Amino acid sequence: MRVIAGEHKGRQLRPVPNRLTRPTTDKVKEALFQIIGPFFEGGQALDLFAGSGGLGIEAISRGIDHCVFVDKHPKAIQTIYDNVKALKLEEKTEVFRTDAFRAMKAAGKRDLSFDLIFLDPPYKKVSYEKLVEDINDHQLLKENGMIICEHDADEHLPEQLAGIPLFKHEIYGGTIAISIYQ
């Protein structure tokens, strides 16, 4: 696992040391960022179910100002801290060990909103519809912001989630799908 482009291009990232987390492959990450914008001029990101933090770190490397990482697993949180520290990104990040729904509620109370929201929960264990409803309820997505859902290719996500239309859907390697809502 590595950072694909931007300020930290080529830097290695530590994976979470367990078999429960499946990091986004470099190929999928590269294709995803070609779709959502190869580079950014600032902005805020939220990486729910962050695992090693690879998607949020990639966004920062490409110009996002700040990213909030959320995961409930201690090994994932430690890995995110290690990766953030190795790249000296402490000033551009916040890391929370909590459930995604609690994190969204807390972000809403802080009046936070995001340009990019990455959703990569354990496949077929969490409802994307419920996640996006909570994003809407807490007003976490900025106008023209994007919600990026990584999911099993067999799982079909609808043309709209909580009133937000599907912008792009791609399948990679026959097993991983990315659905982007904007």
From TrEMBL:
PANTHER family the record matches: METHYLTRANSFERASE
Keyword list, A-Z: Methyltransferase, Transferase
Domain of life: Bacteria
One Pfam family here: Cons_hypoth95
Organism expressing this protein natively: Thalassobacillus cyri
Gene Ontology molecular function, alphabetical: methyltransferase activity; nucleic acid binding
SUPFAM superfamilies associated with the record: S-adenosyl-L-methionine-dependent methyltransferases (SSF53335)
Gene Ontology BP annotations: rRNA methylation
Entry keyword Ribonucleoprotein: no
Matching PROSITE patterns: N6_MTASE
The UniProt record lists the keyword Transcription regulation: no
Name used for this protein in its record: 16S rRNA (Guanine966-N2)-methyltransferase
